[in-house]
Amino acid sequence: ETATSPFQIMRFDNSGINQITNNTIFNASRPTVSGYVRINNAGMMVWNEFDGHDYEIFFYDGAIHQITNNNFDDHWPRINASGSLVWHGYVDSDYEIFLYDGSTVHQKTDNAIHDLHPDINADGNIAWHRWDGNDYEIVFDNGTSIVPITNNTFDDLVVDIFGNQLVWYGYEGGSNFYGGTDAEAFFYDGLTVNQL
């Protein structure tokens, strides 16, 4: 079934289902909301939305705020308990990581390699996967420096973070995200990486 009208953001709480957005832009080839909607325990939400030119980051804390307004796509938004946001944006032919701290957008990476799919913990530390020239590896920004967590010969992808613990999947055995079928789960406990 093909959509014929703009997608809307809805939220369910104790009062029922509430419509958050009132989107008017429709483009069948670029959905209004791309599917990356996240909510924290306080009911604050983040998503990316097509503005007629590219995807931008939006934030809801009782009112809707447009966080980005640039000329490139912003995707994969994540939110922590205090309302800090992270996402990746396609800048100058590669993806970079961005952080919104509640008042300012900060570009956390600025390089010629892909940095993708970030997640953020309650302390504002960020983890994501980064291209190393051969495959994707997990890195962790501890607030002081960006620390490599993996260094192997297969793709490590889509990390989740809780405290200093990380979990992700990797295509061990030489296969990869773009053609492999055998993913394994991995866990970092703050000291060592273990396959689950």
Describe it for me?
The chain has no helices and 18 strands. 0% of the residues lie in helices and 46% in strands. By secondary structure, it is mainly β. The strands form 5 sheets. The protein has a 4-stranded antiparallel β-sheet, with no helix packed on it.
Topology pattern, helix = H, strand = E: EEEEEEEEEEEEEEEEEE
Average residue-wise pLDDT = 88
Strand composition percent: over 45%
Helix content: under 10%
Going by helix content, strand content and strand pairing, the class is mainly beta
Extended strand count: 18
In whole angstroms, how far apart are the ends? Answer: 38 Å
Radius of gyration: 17 Å
Q: How many individual helices?
A: 0
Uncertain parts:
none
Largest sheet: 4 strands, antiparallel
Reading side by side through the largest sheet, how are the strands ordered? 3-4-5-6
Overall outline: globular
Q: What is shown here, in short?
A:
With 196 residues, the chain is mostly beta strands.
Topology at a glance:
Blueprint: E1 10-13, E2 16-19, E3 38-39, E4 45-50, E5 55-60, E6 64-66, E7 74-79, E8 85-91, E9 94-100, E10 105-107, E11 115-120, E12 126-131, E13 136-141, E14 146-148, E15 156-162, E16 165-170, E17 184-188, E18 193-195
Key terms:
single chain; globular; mainly beta; 196 residues; 0% helix; 4-stranded antiparallel beta sheet; 46% strand
